[in-house]
């Protein structure tokens, strides 16, 4: 399956990479919601009500088992640090062939997709600049490779590497443990 590929060279030596699979997302500027096909990656369910979902390409049609928030670990080119980005209210469709990031759903969180320079940009509530990069595949789809992470995975990786995890807005950030 696509999400089982491992591209550690691209992500460097971040502690989470030792235990995470990398997922290949399609960045879709017309999709109404994010789509995740792995229900185990939901960090908070927002609805357990099934709903019919249709998609723009084969394999994206199906019945969701509900909606939930998921998080991806992604490299922020502005700060040169990894960041845990929340994808809110994702349609969870176990049969979906691709995971999908919705441009309009990102806009609700103040992030904007620019296809010309292949970036997702924005500013957090605390003023931190965000700039993620994505690619255009041979199939002419915009794609982004990054791991999905649960809260426990993020916190455990921080602990193992002598760091603490703290909330920064709606985000969990791994930071150095205070010595003293």
Contiguous helical run count = 3
Query: What is the typical, i.e. mean, pLDDT?
Result: 75
Query: Taking Cα atoms only, what radius of gyration do you get, to the nearest Å?
Result: 16 Å
Poorly predicted runs: 1-12, 174-180
- Helix/sheet category: mainly beta
Main sheet record: 4 strands, mixed
- Give the strand order of the largest sheet, numbering strands 1, 2, ... along the chain: 8-1-13-12
How far the N terminus sits from the C terminus, by CA atoms, comes to 47 Å
Q: Report the count of strand segments.
A: 15
Helix content: 10-25%
Strand content: 35-45%
Note down, in words, how this protein is organized:
This protein is mainly β and 180 residues long. The protein has three helices and 15 strands. The protein has helices at residues 8-11, 103-108, 151-160, and strands at 22-28, 35-36, 44-47, 51-53, 62-64, 67-76, 81-92, 99-102, 111-114, 119-123, 129-133, 135-136, 142-147, 163-168, 171-176. The chain has a four-stranded mixed beta sheet. The radius of gyration is 16 Å and the shape is globular. Mean pLDDT is 75; it is low at 1-12 and 174-180.
In short:
Helices cover 11% and strands 44% of the residues. The protein is mainly β. A 4-stranded mixed β-sheet has the order 8-1-13-12.
Compile the SSE list and pairings.
Layout: H1 8-11, E1 22-28, E2 35-36, E3 44-47, E4 51-53, E5 62-64, E6 67-76, E7 81-92, E8 99-102, H2 103-108, E9 111-114, E10 119-123, E11 129-133, E12 135-136, E13 142-147, H3 151-160, E14 163-168, E15 171-176
Parallel strand pairs: 1-8, 2-7
Antiparallel strand pairs: 1-13, 3-6, 4-5, 6-7, 9-10, 10-11, 12-13, 14-15
């Amino acid at each position: 399956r696509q999400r089982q590929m491992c591209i550690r060279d691209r992500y460097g030596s971040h502690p989470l990479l030792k235990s995470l699979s990398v997922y290949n997302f399609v960045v879709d500027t017309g999709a109404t919601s994010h789509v995740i096909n792995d229900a185990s990656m939901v960090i908070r369910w927002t609805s357990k009500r099934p709903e019919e979902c249709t998609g723009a390409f084969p394999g994206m049609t199906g019945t969701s088992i509900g909606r939930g928030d998921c998080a991806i670990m992604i490299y922020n080119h502005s700060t040169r640090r990894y960041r845990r980005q929340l994808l809110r209210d994702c349609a969870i469709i176990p049969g979906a062939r691709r995971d999908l990031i919705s441009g309009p759903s990102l806009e609700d969180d103040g992030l904007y997709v620019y296809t010309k320079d292949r970036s997702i940009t924005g500013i957090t509530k605390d003023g931190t600049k965000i700039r993620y990069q994505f690619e255009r595949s041979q199939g002419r789809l915009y794609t982004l490779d990054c791991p999905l992470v649960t809260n426990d995975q993020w916190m455990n990786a921080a602990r193992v590497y002598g760091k603490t995890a703290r909330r920064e807005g709606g985000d969990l950030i791994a930071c150095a443990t205070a010595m003293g």
